[in-house]
Amino acid sequence: MRKLRFHSDVDTSILTEAEIAAVQKEAVKQVEQDRKKLVIKAYHDQMVREERAKVDENETLEDVIIDLPGYTKYLLINGMYYDHGTIASVPHHVAVSLREIMGQAWQHERISGNPNMKDYKSVSNGNFYGNLGSGVGFTRA
After folding, report:
1. pTM flag (> 0.70)
2. Domain locations in the chain as residue ranges
3. Rg of the chain over CA atoms, in angstroms?
4. Could you give the percent of the chain with pLDDT greater than 90?
5. Quick one: which H or E segment has residue 108?
6. In sequence order, what are the beta bridge partners of 131?
7. Residues 6+ apart with CB under 8 A from 63
8. Cβ contacts of residue 132 below 8 Å, gap of 6+?
9. How far apart (Å, rounded) are the C-alpha atoms in residues 101 and 74?
10. Contacts of the segment 46-54: beta carbons below 8 A, 24+ positions apart
11. pLDDT at position 34, please?
12. DSSP code of 57?
């Protein structure tokens, strides 16, 4: 894992080493808590979608492979990111919309003469991970 160093204008010369260490420890703890909250929220949202799918057939989940031309890396729909090369488990009505948008994007690419094919990363080799479905996704391996 890479260590990042941010240079700031904060003068820490008045703090003791123990105080600096305590602040750093608290910062690490806060970041871990924030990350955990995001994962819990994503998992909760997924479980709610699955439960809705059990009682409402219009909410049945479908897996959609997000395959986009080279000029874009994701779709952003209603605050949800759908990254190229991921599998999104979404309700049927969202799956229909995603397929339509991807089809239009590919049609635009073909009409334009395929200028972005050099930037296209194929998803046909199965080298992708599922999307948690609430904006927290995993990109290509």
Report:
1. no
2. 17-131
3. 21
4. 30
5. helix 92-111
6. 88
7. 87, 88, 89, 130
8. 39, 42, 43, 45, 46, 138
9. 11
10. 46/89, 46/132, 46/133, 46/134, 49/89, 49/91, 49/133, 52/91, 53/91
11. 95
12. G
